[in-house]
Design brief:
single chain; alpha/beta; Rossmann fold; 7-stranded mixed β-sheet; two-stranded antiparallel sheet; 7 helices; globular
């Protein structure tokens, strides 16, 4: 059964974006198979401006809209991939938008370098979180080191954080937060993609 009222998940894109970090999440947000409400979500890309960006893998992408035009009220979630440009402060406007999302009770998912940007903005000072490694975030000068957890992914209230090598766990928590799959199907999805568990496919086929 399709859902007539489509909701938009916004994916931030910028130069040096780490291609692998959001692939599982956005592919399965857009793929109707196994979903609780097929067609409920679509993905829109958001850039600093409308100029093409080049990912770390050399792929050119063109943003659908600019970050200045993004209103949290019009979004189901903001996803922030990693990129080397987070560390020099040039993506601070995306961290500011993440703060706006959280203030409006809208979820944000950040991985790898994006967690550095959120730390530098003070967003992780009062939330449980993770990243690539604790001393990576410590370099941002933030005050939230006591909230760091050495885990693959951490979800605290409306904020999902993960390290660069945990893209499947990151996707699992995104899909769960958006209620894309039933709990049984989400568990099977994770077992299949994270552990190549062939028995999980029967659950997905039945869905």
């Amino acid at each position: 059964m399709s859902n007539q009222s489509n909701e938009t998940v916004h994916l931030a894109i910028y130069n040096t974006l780490a291609d692998w970090e959001t692939g599982h999440a956005i592919a399965h947000i857009n793929q109707a198979a196994w979903q609780r409400e097929p067609g409920r979500y679509s993905v829109t890309t958001v850039g600093l401006d409308l100029e093409p960006i080049t990912t770390i893998g050399g792929v050119r992408m063109i943003p659908d809209m600019t970050i200045s035009d993004l209103n949290p009220a019009d979004s189901a979630m903001l996803i922030l991939p990693g990129a080397s440009t987070w560390e020099d402060g040039s993506l601070a406007v995306f961290a500011a938008k993440a703060q706006e999302f959280l203030a409006n009770d809208k979820p944000v998912a950040a991985i790898c370098g994006a967690t550095y940007g959120l730390a530098a903005a003070g967003i992780l000072d009062d939330r449980l979180h993770t990243s690539n490694v604790d001393f990576y975030l410590a370099a941002s000068g933030y005050d939230g080191a006591h909230n760091y957890r050495d885990e693959s992914v951490v979800t605290d209230r409306n904020l999902i954080t993960a390290g660069a090598t945990n893209q499947i766990e990151f996707a699992r928590d995104i899909l769960g937060r958006l209620d894309v799959y039933t709990p049984e199907v989400l568990d099977a999805w994770y077992r299949l993609y994270a552990h190549s568990d062939a028995s999980a496919f029967a659950v997905l086929a039945a869905a």
